[in-house]
């Protein structure tokens, strides 16, 4: 502990020595600094700090009151004691009122030491209290800053549910200022009734149980539902009773919304997994069922002799089921192209009427087999009829004729499949207009294709999913209708590629369904702009059509090496090519083909891709490394069940000139070989 330092204002050296002796005798160890004038007193106060000031009341040219006034201005916390020989009671009282700690008469110096000790103790207590008050103020300011700036909503309530305090964070949730809540109960806050009731119940629960509560609340704000994680704790008074309830609410909206989204995603993934499993089961069934008929009739034809009628029936069944499988595979490939964004259109000016009629012709036999009333009508016939030529009405769109036919075919196939015997399927083609609601100006003309049926209809809950891939209203093993559930998904994508839209309607199960397709029509002014491009496309299509319509060219004198590990495929190819006059050599592997190549010297190579040990890609790369005279430049056709765009690119990159997907018709393989020989 540092030594005490006292400042003594005393003009008498004798009195100063007496005071010093009194302090020493009383056990007060200090450094006593004596000054005799007002100037010295002022200088000492300016230059140093002191623990106590002792002052005579009467000083020549100066007085005790002046000294007290200076001390109160410069160091009010320092005790000030008058030590004087003469001081009346009134003067003494006045000095105490002015801030003096005490006064001691020189005739009674025995009071000096107790007075000093008391003054020092009181000064220390004042310092401690001031320090505590300063610390408390600092902490209050710190706490207020934390509360006022906290993202959490901090509030205090009395036991009558009135809000005593609420932090500014409440504004972020309710858009209301804290003042709107003060001295109000939850019912008076203008908050939702259910929320008010929950709040009152939670406060009452804290009061009744004297225990903290943890709970969540939902607040319907303008930005959507907000979620708060709330903790309430009781606050007790001096008598031990609950006076107030402190509440801290944390905004967990982001976390809660993430949890909700995760649950939704989980449910969606579970649904997708269910749909996937269901689709795979359906796919297995749809692929295996035609194979059963194909393999069954094949074994019958191999194992016994049959009459002509049975033979025709068997061949018809095999062909029908093979086409069914081909269609299933084409649908899968189309969906794959759609998913990868690779499905494109060969668009040009097209009349919808022939495309619809072609689709109808394809489905007519299926309709007749079920005795379905099959009707096609064109509304507003006269306005679209070419009266000079007598042609069918023109419903011209910018589109791909094959894909447009596919749209109608899929819709008709769907309608016929789900319509019972003796039902009705109706196709309606008409022109509709989309107008501006403000001035009734025609914005767009659409060709509208409507397909109505009297079939099993669509459940209202399934209509939003009717155009989704791999979705079927009934995916169970006991379902009455086949298919992969891809047709309508393909329809929607093809329609949208043509700039149109498709929708489905149904009054309910057993009440039929209606599908409506709208495709923008190409007006005459638009056709002028596109005329040059369309002419080029038409010329190209005309040339292509004339080339493809030519009868199968004879392959006399053309040597073809056929490579396929599947003996049935190999025999089929050999038979089809030999029937057109080609000379055939066959190989069941890449190694066998490489051995045959130099001696046979083929003019065309037809090879499978998927083969054991070495695939077709490897075979072709090895051939392309051979010298010209040993067959290194032989034109080659990749004939494979790997029918995707990536597979085609891989085949061409390996050295093949042509890529043909399986299954292939005899005429197609003959034409492909012929075309390759000519190049």
Cα-to-Cα separation, first versus last residue: 113 Å
Low-pLDDT segments, ≥5 res:
381-391, 473-484, 524-552
Overall pLDDT: 82
Helix content: 40-55%
Shape: elongated
Beta-strand content bin: 15-25%
Helix/strand/pairing class, anyone?
Answer: alpha/beta
Determine the CATH superfamily of the largest domain: Histidine kinase-like ATPase, C-terminal domain
Helix count, DSSP H or I runs of 4 or more residues: 19
Largest sheet: 5 strands, parallel
The total of beta strands comes to 24
CATH architecture of the largest domain: 2-Layer Sandwich
- Spatial order of the strands forming the largest sheet: 2-1-3-6-7
> Can you identify the CATH class of the largest domain?
Alpha Beta
Please tell me how large the radius of gyration is: 51 Å
Question: What's the number of structural domains?
Answer: 5
Q: What is CATH's topology name of the largest domain? A: Heat Shock Protein 90
Structural features, described:
This protein has 679 residues and is α/β, with parallel strands linked by helices. It folds into five domains: 4-129, Response regulator (Rossmann fold, 3-Layer(aba) Sandwich), CATH 3.40.50; 150-251, Beta-Lactamase (2-Layer Sandwich), CATH 3.30.450; 267-336, Orthogonal Bundle (Helix Hairpins); 344-529, Heat Shock Protein 90, CATH 3.30.565; 559-678, Rossmann fold, CATH 3.40.50. The chain is 47% helix and 21% strand. Helix 10 (352-369) packs parallel to helix 12 (401-418) and helix 16 (590-600) packs parallel to helix 17. The longest helix has 51 residues, at 253-303. It is elongated, with a radius of gyration of 51 Å. The termini are far apart. 27% of the residues are buried.
């Amino acid at each position: 502990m540092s030594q005490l330092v006292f400042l003594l204002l005393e003009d008498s050296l004798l009195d100063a020595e007496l005071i010093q002796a009194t302090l020493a005798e009383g056990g007060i160890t200090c450094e006593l600094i004596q000054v005799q004038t007002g100037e010295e007193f002022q200088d000492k106060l300016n230059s140093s700090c002191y623990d106590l000031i002792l002052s005579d009341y009467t000083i020549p040219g100066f007085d005790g009151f002046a000294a007290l006034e200076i001390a109160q201005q410069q160091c009010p916390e320092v005790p000030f004691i008058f030590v004087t020989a003469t001081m009346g009671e009134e003067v003494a009282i006045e000095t105490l009122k002015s801030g003096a700690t005490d006064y001691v008469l020189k005739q009674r110096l025995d009071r000096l030491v107790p007075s000093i000790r008391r003054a020092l103790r009181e000064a220390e207590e004042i310092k401690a209290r001031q320090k505590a008050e300063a610390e408390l103020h600092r902490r209050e300011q710190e706490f207020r800053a934390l509360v006022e700036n906290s993202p959490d909503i901090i509030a205090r309530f009395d036991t009558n549910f009135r809000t005593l305090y609420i932090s500014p964070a409440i504004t972020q949730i309710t858009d209301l200022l804290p003042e709107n809540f003060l001295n109000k109960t939850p019912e008076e806050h203008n908050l939702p009734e259910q929320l008010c009731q929950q709040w009152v119940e939670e406060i009452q629960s804290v009061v009744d149980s004297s225990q903290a509560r943890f709970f969540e609340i939902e607040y319907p704000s303008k930005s959507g539902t907000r979620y708060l994680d709330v903790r309430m704790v009781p606050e007790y008074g001096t008598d031990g009773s609950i006076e107030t309830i402190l509440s801290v609410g944390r905004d967990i909206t982001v976390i809660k919304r993430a949890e909700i989204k995760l649950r939704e995603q989980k449910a969606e993934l579970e649904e997708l997994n269910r749909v996937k499993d269901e689709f795979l089961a359906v796919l297995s069934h749809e692929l295996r069922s035609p194979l059963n008929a194909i393999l069954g009739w094949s074994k019958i034809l191999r194992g016994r002799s049959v009459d002509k009628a049975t033979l025709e029936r068997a061949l018809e069944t095999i062909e029908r089921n093979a086409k069914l499988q081909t269609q299933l595979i084409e649908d899968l490939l189309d969906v794959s192209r759609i998913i990868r964004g690779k499905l494109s259109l060969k668009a040009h000016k097209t009349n919808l009427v022939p495309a619809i009629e072609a689709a109808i012709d394809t489905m007519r036999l299926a309709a007749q087999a079920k005795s379905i009333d099959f009707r096609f009508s064109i509304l507003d016939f006269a306005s679209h009829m070419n009266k000079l030529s007598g042609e069918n009405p023109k419903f011209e769109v910018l589109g791909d004729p094959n894909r447009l036919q596919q749209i109608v075919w899929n819709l008709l196939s769907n309608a016929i499949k789900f319509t019972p015997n003796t039902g009705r399927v109706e196709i309606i083609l008409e022109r509709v207009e989309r107008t501006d609601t403000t001035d009734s100006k025609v914005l767009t003309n659409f060709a509208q294709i409507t397909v109505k049926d009297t079939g099993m209809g669509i459940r209202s809950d399934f209509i939003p999913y009717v155009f989704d891939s791999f979705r079927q209203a009934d995916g169970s093993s006991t379902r009455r209708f086949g298919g992969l559930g891809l047709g309508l998904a393909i329809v929607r994508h093809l329609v949208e590629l043509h700039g149109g839209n498709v929708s489905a309607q149904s009054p309910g199960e057993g009440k039929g369904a209606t599908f409506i397709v709208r495709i923008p029509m190409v007006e005459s002014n638009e056709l002028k702009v596109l005329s040059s491009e369309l002419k080029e496309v038409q010329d190209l299509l005309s040339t292509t059509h004339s080339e493809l319509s030519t009868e199968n060219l004879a392959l006399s004198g053309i040597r073809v090496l056929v490579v396929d590990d599947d003996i049935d495929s190999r025999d089929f190819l050999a038979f089809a090519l030999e029937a057109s006059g080609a000379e055939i050599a066959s190989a069941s592997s890449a190694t066998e083909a490489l051995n045959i190549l130099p001696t046979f010297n083929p003019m065309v190579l037809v090879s499978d891709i998927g083969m054991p040990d070495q695939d077709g890609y490897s075979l072709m790369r090895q051939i392309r490394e051979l010298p010209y005279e040993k067959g290194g430049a032989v034109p080659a056709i990749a004939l494979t069940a790997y029918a995707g765009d990536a597979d085609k690119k891989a085949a061409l990159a390996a050295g093949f000139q042509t890529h043909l997907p399986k299954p292939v018709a005899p005429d197609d393989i003959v034409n492909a070989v012929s075309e390759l020989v000519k190049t």
